[in-house]
Amino acid sequence: MKVLVAVKRVVDYNVKVRVKADNSGVDLANVKMSMNPFCEIAVEEAVRLKEKGVATEIVVVSIGPSTAQEQLRTALALGADRAILVESADELNSLAVAKLLKAVVDKEQPQLVILGKQAIDSDNNQTGQMLAALTGYGQGTFASKVEVSGDSVAVTREVDGGGQTVSLKLPAIVTTDLRLNEPRYASLPNIMKAKKKPLEVLTPDALGVSTASTTKTLKVEAPAARSAGIKVKSVAELVEKLKNEAKVI
Amino acid sequence: MTILVIAEHDNKVLAPATLNTVAAAVKIGGDIHLLVAGQGAGAVAESAAKIAGVAKVLVADNAAYAHQLPENVAPLVAELGAGYSHILAAATSNGKNILPRVAAQLDVDQISEIISVESADTFKRPIYAGNAIATVQSSAAIKVITVRATGFDPVAAEGGSAAVEAVAAVHDAGTSSFVGEELAKSDRPELTAAKIVVSGGRGMQNGDNFKHLYALADKLGAAVGASRAAVDAGFVPNDMQVGQTGKIVAPQLYIAVGISGAIQHLAGMKDSKVIVAINKDEEAPIFQVADYGLVADLFEAIPEFEKLV
């Protein structure tokens, strides 16, 4: 079974971003970039499926700037077999990304596509569901457990009330939640090997996909700051303040 | 302009988040229709018809919609929604699961988790875990939007008398099926609707120690949440997670106990009216957003807190 994993290059999750002075966006100059944490979990899940003998080939794909090759090499070092970069210098909306991934799915015909549930930059949580709509496949979003058996996959999902399990016919789309697995680190020999693995670069034009968007960002601002609070010395003082000053208990 | 709002429910009860979503629709302006897709959800439709400001309730009652499977519900919403100017759903796990699928079927972008309505086509939404707020404008013929409940005060649950109309359309894609669910049972208020939330982090050390928080929460009539660290460590189940990728809460009072305050956690609670932090590490970042900070050993402070309220 072929597994396709989509990964996104985003600002590292430890970085506290700052809004640009002209409110045009956030300042990403000289900021550490990494693979989106949910995408790391997606790669790990695919690698585990391969180790179990369920997956035979892992293709990793990213839609983004040429520098996203770094994240693809990371995925190759973690165990993906080959990589595809659909190069676009523009920041694309989820629908455009889903259309590009649909074109890659048409080309590669994977049985399972694994994506992160959301990217920690745009916080959209859309692409997997959109790809499922465009392909007509079933979707198992926010997955905490994935079990492939025969021509279906059982996905346990993290939902507001707890957990829900659905069964999807293959091919299917899965998006990962935090508890699906704990991603490994790439070993040095594997990082070296990854440099020799194939990485194909495509363009939206070559895939025949229009990336036009109906959404425009007018401005990006810093959120309202909370004013600094006070330190209380004892539980008794805390309770007194909550009762008489804040009046919340 | 007519707006279609997707009702959030479990076939028995209409979820409160629906009222916040209707509030966002009221701000956009225009007639508001509510879609109840489910099975045997008559009581939900009745509640929906009473919501202030709702003109019409559409009820799609079929086994295919019983478990809100997106493969079946999204085509229904896309078919019905084609005649509307906006389609709104709460940014719950259901709304997030279904609505992007609807948007892609309609070939439009989706705008996720809006926290304010600037005009009928312009909205604000947090990005980068709430460290930036983007103002976005949509030129799409149909604007497909999920609504963050904490951004909008709920409309009144009573006072309306909407017409209820049955929808015959049945979509059963046959690509997915419901296997089962394990839902947490609790007598405490629901996390996202509670006026007071008590949350525990890694500092709780283990799941058993959460009993101290439950005791305090029960005295305060509060819900209990947790940081990602506490959930990842297996102290408590995932449905208690507050943060960027968990639940977003904005109660009157948020009490963070043994939580360091990673930006991903702050993203889920920093809009709370009053924040209390109890942590033995006085350098913990949580104190930077706390209105009242107490540097103390939580195992001494929490039982004392419980006694004093």
Automatic annotation (TrEMBL), chain A:
SUPFAM superfamilies according to UniProt: Adenine nucleotide alpha hydrolases-like
CDD domains for the chain: ETF_beta
Keywords linked to the UniProt accession: Electron transport, Transport
Domain Electron transfer flavoprotein alpha/beta-subunit N-terminal: 23-211
SMART domains cross-referenced by the UniProt entry: ETF
Domain of life, per lineage: Bacteria
GO BP term, pick one: carboxylic acid catabolic process
Cofactor: AMP
MF terms (GO), sorted A to Z: electron transfer activity
Subunit details: Heterodimer of an alpha and a beta subunit.
Job description of the protein: The electron transfer flavoprotein serves as a specific electron acceptor for other dehydrogenases. It transfers the electrons to the main respiratory chain via ETF-ubiquinone oxidoreductase (ETF dehydrogenase).
Similarity comment: Belongs to the ETF beta-subunit/FixA family.
Name of the protein this chain belongs to: Electron transfer flavoprotein subunit beta
Species of origin: Pseudomonas fluorescens
Automatic annotation (TrEMBL), chain B:
InterPro entries xrefs: DHS-like_NAD/FAD-binding_dom, ETF_a/b_N, ETF_a/FixB, ETF_alpha_N, ETF_asu_C, ETF_asu_C_CS, Rossmann-like_a/b/a_fold
Keyword Transport: yes
PROSITE patterns (alphabetical): ETF_ALPHA
Sites where the protein binds FAD: 202, 227-228, 241-245, 258-265, 279
Cofactor dependency: FAD
Keywords: Electron transport, FAD, Flavoprotein, Transport
GO biological process, one term: fatty acid beta-oxidation using acyl-CoA dehydrogenase
Keyword Secreted recorded: no
GO molecular function: electron transfer activity; flavin adenine dinucleotide binding
Cofactor note: Binds 1 FAD per dimer.
Domain Electron transfer flavoprotein alpha/beta-subunit N-terminal: 3-182
Free-text function comment from the UniProt entry: The electron transfer flavoprotein serves as a specific electron acceptor for other dehydrogenases. It transfers the electrons to the main respiratory chain via ETF-ubiquinone oxidoreductase (ETF dehydrogenase).
Family: Belongs to the ETF alpha-subunit/FixB family.
Subunit structure: Heterodimer of an alpha and a beta subunit.
Protein name: Electron transfer flavoprotein subunit alpha
Taxonomic placement: Bacteria, Pseudomonadati, Pseudomonadota, Gammaproteobacteria, Pseudomonadales
